[in-house]
Amino acid sequence: MYLMVGTRPDIAFAMGTLSRFTSRPQSHHQDALQLLLRYVKATQLHRITYRSGQLIGYTDADFGGSVVTDGGYSTSGYVFKLAGAPVSWSSKRQGK
């Protein structure tokens, strides 16, 4: 979770989804975690690079989500980029 929160916005959605199943993990959750760890290892030399530029923000939501996988809850998120690189981001599953 530290990687996601502090340094790796690219894995935020996958980690958030996997963390929902920590109390009752199944084999396909372990397979997904292994894929995520392989991705992190393969991209460990990638860096966030700041260039000249301005502050830009993006936001998105999927209203209703998937009834099968999300129980019908919406997911919303945002990212703010400064000088071409992310400085703040969030992805949240909305409650009732």
Care to describe what's here?
This protein has two domains: 1-47, no CATH class; 48-96, no CATH class. Helix content is 31%, strand content 26%. The chain is built from three helices and three strands. Strands 1-2-3 form a three-stranded antiparallel β-sheet, covered by helices on one side.
> End-to-end distance, in Å?
25 Å
Give the structural class: alpha+beta
Q: What can be said about the biggest beta sheet?
A: 3 strands, antiparallel
Count of discrete domains: 2
Total helices: the number is 3
What's the mean pLDDT score? 81
Q: Give the tally of β-strands.
A: 3
**Overall form:** flat
The secondary-structure element order is: HHHEEE
List keywords for this structure.
alpha+beta, 3 helices, three-stranded antiparallel sheet, flat, 3 strands, 96 residues
In short:
The chain has 96 residues and is an alpha+beta fold. It is 31% helix and 26% strand.
Task: Give the secondary structure arrangement, pairings included.
Elements (H helix, E strand, L loop, with lengths): L1 H6 L4 H8 L7 H16 L12 E8 L12 E8 L2 E9 L3
Antiparallel strand pairs: 1-2, 2-3
